[in-house]
Amino acid sequence: MTDHIPENSRRRFIKLTAIGLAAAPFANVLLSGSAEAADPISETDPQATALGYKADATKAEKRKDATQLCSNCNFYSAKAGDASGPCVLFQGKLVTANGWCTAWAKKAA
Ligand code: SF4
Predict the structure, then answer these.
(1) What are the Cα distances from residue 107, in Å, to 11, 42, 74, 93?
(2) Which distant-in-sequence residues (6+ apart) come within 8 Å of 1 by Cβ?
(3) Which residues pair with 58 in a beta bridge?
(4) Is CATH 4.10.490.10 what the domain over 2-96 is classified as, yes or no?
(5) Nearest atom, ligand 1, residue 95 CA
(6) Mean pLDDT in residue range 28-42
(7) What whole-number distance in Å separates Cα of residue 90 and Cα of residue 84?
(8) How confident is the model over 60-71, as pLDDT tens digits?
(9) Which of 31, 49, 53 to mutate to test the pocket of ligand 1 (most atoms within 8 A of CB)?
(10) Residue 13: which H helix or E strand, with range?
(11) Using a 6 Å cutoff on CB, does residue 54 contact ligand 1?
(12) How far is 16 from 75, CA to CA, in rounded Å?
């Protein structure tokens, strides 16, 4: 049954699942807004590099949909209009509202 899943998709799924599981215990703190001020995530951070994070989404080569931004990602939790905010995947760091990475997921309604 899994013979039809391309190897790259399988690896990406496993990687994102592992990152999500590692981040899950911290999600409540980040989403509650009680996290203390944090530094911006560096694009050269190993996890940021692995996920192709760019602080300026227009510079993300893997981004195919110009409407996708951190600000409308399900993992982003800043207030509307904030220039940056927490992302569940980057614990203790801030991502820019106009950023993007390959883990982007449509914000739940
Ligand atoms: S696109 Fe989503 S998952 Fe990726 S850095 Fe931005 S808020 Fe986080």
Answers:
(1) 24, 23, 4, 20
(2) none
(3) none
(4) yes
(5) 5
(6) 66
(7) 12
(8) 999 999 999 999
(9) 53
(10) helix 7-32
(11) no
(12) 12
pTM: 0.70
Centre a 10 Å sphere on the Cβ of residue 12 and count the other Cβ atoms it contains: 14
**Pairing mode, strands 39-40 and 84-87:** unpaired
Domain segments of the chain as ranges: 2-96
Task: Express as a percent the part of the chain with pLDDT over 90.
Answer: 62
Q: Measured over all CA atoms, what is the biggest interatomic distance in the chain, rounded to whole angstroms?
A: 46
Q: Which atom of ligand 1 is nearest to the CA of 100?
A: 1
Question: Does pLDDT of 28 surpass 70?
Answer: no
> Residue with structure tokens 């220039």?
83
Q: What is the mean pLDDT of the chain?
A: 83
Burial of residue 17 (CB within 10 Å: 0-12, 13-18, 19+) is: exposed
Q: What is the pLDDT of residue 7?
A: 74
